[in-house]
From TrEMBL:
Catalytic activity: L-threonyl-[protein] + ATP = O-phospho-L-threonyl-[protein] + ADP + H(+); L-seryl-[protein] + ATP = O-phospho-L-seryl-[protein] + ADP + H(+)
Regions that span the bilayer: 288-312
Classification via SMART domains: EGF, EGF_CA, S_TKc
PANTHER family, alphabetized: WALL-ASSOCIATED RECEPTOR KINASE-LIKE 10-RELATED, WALL-ASSOCIATED RECEPTOR KINASE-LIKE 21
Annotated protein name in UniProt: Wall-associated receptor kinase-like protein
Lineage of source species: Eukaryota, Viridiplantae, Streptophyta, Embryophyta, Tracheophyta
Sequence ranges assigned to domain Protein kinase in this UniProt record: 362-645
Superkingdom of source: Eukaryota
Gene3D superfamilies the UniProt entry points to: Laminin (2.10.25.10), Phosphorylase Kinase, domain 1 (3.30.200.20), Transferase(Phosphotransferase) domain 1 (1.10.510.10)
Annotated EGF-like domain residues: 234-267
Length: 704
């Protein structure tokens, strides 16, 4: 592993909020005829005032290799600065022939990963996806490096494999951008401390609401260094003769005034009529008459100005709402609605004023959670109904169109669905800067939280096997409804435990239909760029780019394994190369006779008299995770089997309760699980290449 030191960095440019540096280091994986050599890269800014900018990207260049990134960022959540761990990865593939990057990435032989805001520690490594020993003549190495996305051209990348060019030479053109600030306190906090860094005649500016810290800037009309005493000094604007040639300039703190000398009247400002000599007033007009006329003129002018301002403000407000309506996809949503015979149905269109009132102007105390697509607030409507309001995050113009498409897609799909285990969309608002969605309120959070939050388990609500089986049956019923009971089949495409919510009675409801798709009656699959959440993606979809209903079945199988084991889809270790897939660990335990109990959650193991039901669910999960999609059951079959197991469990629980009333009834012995001997080895049937429009798509997941 290579840990770079700040002595190796070279400063290229310094601005008011950023520093550009050159870091001549990279991660690599090189293949010899008989050996493989790897080099990791670690960047550590945790003890500095710097953080990696969002304009950086982790770029991998090479063939059939996986770039894995782990690190942590600073996230400011009042009143403290906290650490947010993250991990991500992407795969670069090469088709036959030379690299063809066409000036952009993703492309053939390349993939990129965004850098989270506030990142202070960054470690990247490269792992091989297939045996390349003996095939190293044209592309012997893969490289991963971090740098500003616009600081290098991808057309030159293919030269890396043509001597005498080397990666070290090419890295001379790659810049890394660092954001800087003073401390971690906001301006309001820092002003009360003895070490406040802004001197006189300067403003304190919060550097970043999500990371903390502040910067200083001189007031308008002042110049100097706001970080050193005595601070910023007044600029004498009169030295540049800013007034009319007939006027006089008077310098004031931070600004100046252009007036007329004694005996003159008029306007002394530049580009005006200038100053004229004073003439005696008409003797027929008394001072009182002049005052009355002037006063009436001022009152009239003020009245007209007030009316015009009110009219213009109202007109601008209307234009702004129309702009946001169009920007947020309102016209496209209307088009979708008309095409689908009034698909909006009972979905309510809320005004911005209603939702601001419901959330106390989106007060931070109302935040239920934050995610990659925005923030969810708890609100109360005027009729007393409690709701959850999702406010999309502000993004740049390149991403906004994609988010609007997901927003419209979710609204259109949810208005077609009426199922007790699908979260209900109550309405939306399109007249704000970002679109707002209003859902029914789910009091008990996500299924992911209940499975994996160690501080929550076994307290007020033990997450028992009975509850896990009930939730599994409810999720399966909802997915079966989407696949086979709607007018057109709907593929969810992002089934995971964090997209399952639980209401006040712990009824499970499926959430987040932003990437879902409806199919025509004669369609069996979707051909798309591979995207999803790492650990839940169907391997068959990953290789073929063809998403089928069995891809949702695979993702549901991962959720079943989470319920059985209490483990996350990716089991992280201190060494990134030792990270394990939960699916592979589960299938391995199922293939080893009598070894299933070693991976099961303790609350599942302790379920009295339910070992047959647990084993049946484990076998069902194994069928859902079959690498051959055709051999997996469909969601309707999965739903029926889980419902049958649940009904059997209810009956056996009643019988067991009656038997336990008899003290002579013997206690159960230790739970021993036996599984059938299935062959679930992963055999690659292709050369791991894809014919989709993009050979690579980054795979993101949340780290613990």
């Amino acid at each position: 592993m290579l840990v770079s030191t700040r002595d190796d960095y070279r400063v290229i440019d310094i601005s008011e909020s950023q520093i550009r540096i050159r870091i001549p280091f990279f991660a690599s994986r090189c293949y010899g005829n008989t050996s493989i050599s790897s080099l990791n890269l670690t960047l550590d800014f945790s003890e500095t005032p710097y953080t990696l900018s969002e304009s950086n990207r982790l770029t991998q260049i090479g063939c059939s290799d996986l770039a894995v990134v782990q690190g942590f960022s600073r996230q400011f959540a009042a009143p403290n600065l906290t650490q947010n761990n993250f991990a991500s990865g992407c795969v670069s593939f090469c088709s036959d022939g030379d690299l063809s990057l066409n000036g952009s990435c993703p492309g053939n032989g390349c993939c990129q990963i965004p850098v989270p805001k506030g990142t202070v520690f960054f470690n990247t490594s490269i792992s091989g996806l297939q045996d390349r020993l003996g095939d190293v003549e044209t592309k012997p190495c893969s490289y991963s490096f971090i740098g500003e996305q616009n600081s290098f051209a991808f057309q030159a990348v293919s030269d890396l494999y043509r001597p005498p060019m080397t990666i070290t030479n090419w890295m001379e053109n790659v810049a890394v951008v660092l954001d800087w600030r003073i401390g971690t306190e906001s301006c309001s906090q820092a002003r009360n401390s003895a070490g406040f860094g802004c001197y006189q005649n300067s403003d304190c500016i919060d550097a970043d609401a999500g990371v903390g810290g502040y910067r200083c800037s001189c007031w308008k009309g002042y110049q100097g260094n706001p970080y050193l005493p005595p601070g910023c000094q007044d600029i004498d604007e009169c030295e540049s003769d800013p007034c009319h040639s007939t006027g006089i300039c008077i310098n004031t703190p931070g600004e100046y005034i252009c007036g007329c000398p004694a005996g003159y009247y008029g306007n002394g400002w530049r580009n005006s009529t200038g100053c004229l000599p004073t003439t005696p007033p008409d003797s027929k007009l008394s001072k009182l008459s002049i005052g009355l006329i002037s006063g009436m003129g001022v009152i009239t002018l003020l009245s007209i100005s007030f009316g015009l301002i009110k009219f213009v403000k109202k007109k601008n407000n209307k234009k702004r709402k129309q702009k946001y309506f169009k920007q947020n996809g309102g016209l496209l949503l209307q088009q979708q609605s008309s095409v689908k015979d009034g698909i909006l149905g009972n979905t309510r269109i809320f005004t911005a004023k209603e939702l601001e009132k419901a959330t106390d102007r989106f007060n931070e105390s109302r935040i239920l959670g934050r995610g990659g697509q925005g923030t969810v607030y708890k609100g109360m409507l005027s009729d007393g109904q409690i709701v959850a309001i999702k406010k999309s995050q502000l993004v740049d113009e390149r991403k906004s169109n994609h988010l609007v498409e997901q927003f419209i897609n979710e609204v259109v799909i949810l208005t077609q669905i009426n199922h007790r285990n699908v979260v209900k969309l109550l309405g939306c608002c399109l007249e704000t800067k970002v679109p707002l969605l209003v859902y029914e309120f789910m009091a008990n959070g996500t299924l992911f939280h209940h499975i994996h939050d160690e501080n929550d388990n076994n307290t007020e609500f033990p997450f028992s096997w009975n509850m896990r089986l009930k939730i599994a049956a409810e999720i399966a019923g909802a997915l079966a409804y989407l696949h086979s009971a709607t007018s057109l089949p709907i593929f969810h495409r992002d089934v995971k435990s964090s997209n399952i919510l639980l209401d006040e009675k712990y009824v499970a409801k499926v959430l987040d239909f932003g990437t879902s798709k409806s199919l025509a009656v004669d369609q069996t699959h979707l051909t798309t760029n591979v995207n999803g959440t790492f650990g839940y993606i169907d391997p068959e979809y990953f290789q073929s780019s063809q998403f089928t209903e069995k891809s949702d079945v695979y993702s549901f199988g991962v959720v079943l394994v989470e319920l059985l084991t209490g483990l996350k889809p990716i089991i992280l270790s201190t060494n990134a190369e030792d990270d394990k897939s939960l699916v592979s660990c589960f299938l391995s335990s199922m293939n080893d006779n009598n070894n299933l109990e070693t991976i099961l959650d303790r609350q599942v193991l302790s379920a009295q008299g339910e070992k047959e039901g647990v084993l049946a669910v484990a076998k069902l999960a194994k069928r859902c995770l079959n690498l051959n999609g055709k051999k997996r059951p469909n969601m309707k079959e999965v739903s029926m089997e889980l419902e049958a197991l649940r009904m059997a469990q209810i009956g056996s629980s009643t019988a067991r309760a009656e038997l336990q009333e008899d003290s002579s009834f013997p206690n159960e012995g230790p739970v021993i699980f036996q599984t059938d001997d299935y062959d679930y080895s992963w055999t690659n049937t292709s050369d791991f290449r894809t014919n989709s429009s993009s050979d690579v798509y980054p795979i993101m997941f949340d780290a613990a």
